[in-house]
Automatic annotation (TrEMBL):
Organism: Halobacterium litoreum
Keyword Magnesium: no
Membrane-crossing segments per the record: 740-762, 782-800, 806-827
Pfam annotation, one family: Beta_helix
Protein name: Right-handed parallel beta-helix repeat-containing protein
Region (Disordered): 684-735
CDD domains linked to this entry: PKD (cd00146)
Listed Acidic residues bias regions: 701-713
């Protein structure tokens, strides 16, 4: 400072009047700020950097503007309080910075930018970096606006942006910004004290902002009423608890019956959440009205992907278009009233991809709540540890489960369970390869007006479609136009409500799988009607490929007419059709009318795939590899998977038909394979090959192992075509021996020999042309390539065919090298 400036500062201090920022006449010198800003003031890059050495307040009615390229160094434990307005207006090329001049700084070097503005106040940070504070921005007012745009908020002890000591919050907008290395949360809306919930949070929007290593949460809003709040775009990574939290409940207590808490017009959209220690998106407590969680990408989280808990009611809300992978549960919804009459809830879960989660893909549980206008549509629920979807509520009403792909889950595909199940529709779903039932609908009381239509249930380990209840419903249950194949059992219906099943294909439900049976019914059963006291109508269905097509225990009438049972002669029925060659009909209790029956199917028949297995050798030395192939297996719809069993050990299913195994122990080893098509229908029997490991064997035989159709004892038989002895013979004159000759005259040997002869012929002609002073028609390099191809064929053949071709290939290479060397000497003499 010059001497005049020092005198002015001294006079102002002695007079007790706050001093304005002192500046230096030298443009390169810093500016020290020691007093409040009481009028409109501009800090510029030319007068910076600025050093704020003590607490500074921007007074009400005043605006502090910080121009592009300006750096503000804040001193230790200093707070910059804004009661008027602060506009930090940087640019991408020339940002503003609120930082510290301390060497090797860390979080907590200074306090915070604290907003205490009025209705006309604005705190705006654009293209601004705020770093090394206790908190980046403290919002201690419910009025005005806080805008953080294209800013970097990093390295703070507590939070990036936080409300403190308020009952309501002002308009808060955070867009296109970056929060990193923060102790508790990126953006936090809460009140201080033992009950941290503010009364109301409205108009909070966080868009296209990245939160990385921001303590417990990326964004957290704790308020009794959350209205008009949106978190859209951006990402949350590496936080200890949940990524995005919207919480209206009381801390550590169950929700009360009061309706003073809730969320409305709230959205979490398009956020990427990865690697967090809790839920991806967490919504807790109160009444939910018009809440949307959609289009988010959530992966590798320790909690649920989307978790809605302690909700008292849900209306017009939607969880849609999310991808959740590697979470504990994909989507979890818990709705619970403490007491009182049943209350409707309406929720849509649509177009989500919930895959590879430890527990359920979708889990919905409620108490004292009626599921009305509840829809689960268009989702992919795959490879989850338990159910694809599990929904438990006291009463189902107007519920739709449609157009979902539910596959390869560790328990059942979809489970709907409650006291009363009314007017539920399951339509056009695919339930494939689940390790339980495909669809399981269970009611402890009545079942009424349920319709299961247009579904595919393939390759499930228990029942394709199971409907079970214990009280009579007013409207019949309908099962129509489904294709149910390749499961352990096809359809199971148990309960007193009348049922109509028509136009279904129930075929080849003979899968071996999960232990246990249905009501002491043996495997290979198509349809089971169990403990049915009302009338059963079963018409125009195709039932085939089972031992028992239909088994019934009914006190009412079972009308099973006009069905196709797998044979023109109809089903086997001990009294009504004893000459029938089709699937058996067994009325364990009551009667089943099966005449008239249809002699031809109503729809195209499904076919079992055929299986074949071949091995490139059947007698080998210990440790020699054997290649097995089921490529000759066939199915009109295509073989989907191959199930190999090696010496009694089931290998994981594979999509390719080949298997290579090496056997170390002497004796006979067995490899079996069953093939499965896209409908989960397995081949009728396994094909098998036996391989003998002989310690005296040094060369494999050239036999090709194939399988023939079943021999009647449950196994496919084996045929071996052998072109060489299975044991070594003494070497014959000429040193070739049967092994070498057998290899040379195999397919691989002859093919290599043909190419080798071509190389010799072309090489001989070219050599003759060179020796006579003429230019050969081809280059020597091309001739060497032909010879190399021949040697390569022999070497490949030694792996896939006769092992003796290894010696043939080595000999061919040696002869070619010797001939080439001799010709080179001859040509250069």
């Amino acid at each position: 400072m010059n001497r005049l400036a020092l005198v002015l500062v001294a006079v102002v201090v002695l007079a007790g009047v706050p001093a304005p920022a002192a500046t230096a006449t030298d443009a390169s010198a810093p500016t020290y700020v020691t007093g409040d800003v009481n009028e409109d003031t501009t800090w510029s890059a030319d007068d910076g950097p600025y050093f704020v050495t003590d607490d500074v307040t921007v007074a009400r009615g005043a605006t502090l503007t910080v121009e592009p390229g300006t750096t503000v160094n804040v001193g230790g434990e200093v707070t910059l309080t804004v009661r008027g307005s602060l506009h930090a207006a940087g640019t991408a090329a020339s940002p503003v910075a609120f930082t510290t001049a301390k060497p090797n700084p860390g979080p907590g070097t200074w306090d915070a930018i604290r907003y205490e503005g009025g209705a006309d106040s604005t705190l705006r940070l654009a293209n601004t970096t705020v770093e090394y504070g206790v908190t980046g921005v403290e919002v201690a007012s419910s009025q005005g606006r806080v805008v953080v745009d294209d800013a970097t908020i990093r390295a703070h002890v507590r939070t990036g942006v936080e409300t403190v000591g308020v009952d309501a919050v002002p308009s808060i907008r955070v867009t296109d910004s970056r929060f990193a290395d923060i102790g508790y949360a990126g953006v936090l809306v809460r009140a201080a004290g033992t009950n941290p919930y503010v009364e109301s949070a409205r108009g909070v929007a966080v868009r296209d902002t990245a939160f990385e290593r921001t303590g417990r949460h990326g964004v957290a809003v704790w308020a009794r009423q959350i209205r008009g709040v949106a978190v859209a775009g951006g990402s949350v990574t590496g936080v200890a608890e949940s990524g995005v939290v919207l919480d209206t409940s009381r801390a550590a207590t169950q929700p009360s019956a009061a309706t003073d808490r809730g969320l409305s017009n709230v959205a979490v959209r398009g956020v990427s959440v990865t690697g967090v220690g809790g839920d991806g998106v967490h919504v807790t407590g109160g009444e939910l009205d018009d809440v949307a969680v959609s289009g988010n990408q959530i992966r590798d989280v320790d909690g649920a992907g989307v978790n809605v808990s302690r909700a008292l009611d849900v209306d017009d809300s939607r969880i849609a278009g999310n991808v959740v992978e590697n979470a504990r549960t994909g989507v979890s919804v818990a709705v619970s009233k403490p007491s009182g009459a049943l209350q409707d809830f309406s929720l849509t879960v649509a177009d989500n991809e919930l895959r590879g989660n430890d527990r359920d893909g979708l889990r919905v549980t409620t108490a004292y709540v009626l599921a009305d206008e509840f829809a689960v549509t268009g989702n992919e629920l795959a490879d989850n540890g338990r159910h694809g979807a599990y929904v438990a509520t006291p009463v189902f009403d107007e519920t739709v489960v449609a157009d979902n792909v539910v596959r390869e889950n560790g328990a059942s595909g979809v489970v709907l369970t409650g006291s009363r199940v009314r007017d539920v529709t399951a339509a056009d779903n695919r339930f494939v390869a689940n390790d339980g039932d495909g669809l399981d609908v269970w009611a402890s009381g009545e079942m009424s007006g349920v319709r299961v239509t247009g579904n595919d249930a393939f390759d499930n380990a228990h029942v394709g479609v199971s409907l079970d209840h214990h009280a009579t419903g007013a409207r019949a249950v309908t099962v129509d136009n489904n294709t149910i194949a390749g499961n352990r059992y096809g359809v199971r219906y148990a309960g007193p409500t009348a049922v109509s099943a028509s136009n279904n294909t129930v075929a080849f439900n003979t899968r071996s799988g999960r232990d246990g049976s249905v009501a002491d019914v043996g495997p290979s059963t198509g349809v089971v009607f169990e403990d049915v006291s009302a009338n059963v109508t079963f018409r125009d269905n195709d039932v085939y490929g089972h031992v028992v097509g239909l088994r019934s225990e009914s006190d009412g009438s079972v009308v099973a007419e006009d069905n196709y049972w797998g044979a023109e002669s109809g089903p086997f029925h001990a009294t009504l059709n004893p000459d029938g060659d089709g699937n058996a009909v067994e009325p364990a209790r009551g009667k089943a009318a099966v005449v008239p029956f249809d002699e031809s199917p109503h729809r195209d028949l499904l076919e079992r795939p055929t299986v074949a297995l071949a091995a490139n050798r059947t007698t080998v030395a210990p440790g020699n590899a054997v290649a097995f192939s089921a490529a000759e297996s066939s199915d009109d719809a295509g073989v989907e998977s191959y199930h190999f069993v090696v010496d009694g050990t089931q290998l994981p299913a594979r999509e390719t038909p080949t298997l290579v195994e090496a056997f170390e122990t002497n004796g006979t080893h067995e490899v079996r394979v069953v093939v499965e098509d896209a409908q989960g229908v397995e081949s009728a029997r396994a094909a098998r090959v036996e391989v003998t490991v002989d310690p005296n064997r040094t060369e494999s035989d050239t036999g090709d192992e194939t399988t023939t159709p079943d021999d009647g004892d449950g196994n496919a038989t084996t045929t071996t075509t052998t072109t060489a002895p299975t044991t070594q013979a003494p070497a014959q004159s000429g040193g070739g021996g049967p092994g070498l000759l057998g290899g040379l005259f195999s397919v691989w040997g002859l093919l290599g020999l043909l190419v080798y002869v071509v190389a010799l012929a072309v090489g001989g002609y070219a050599t003759n042309e060179v020796l006579n002073g003429r230019r050969p028609p081809v280059k020597g390099r091309f001739i060497h390539v032909i010879a190399g191809v021949a040697v390569g064929i022999w070497l490949l053949g030694s792996v896939l065919g006769p092992g003796s071709l290894l010696l043939v290939g080595a000999g061919g290479a040696g002869v070619w090298a010797a001939a080439t060397g001799a010709l080179f000497v001859l040509a250069t003499r």
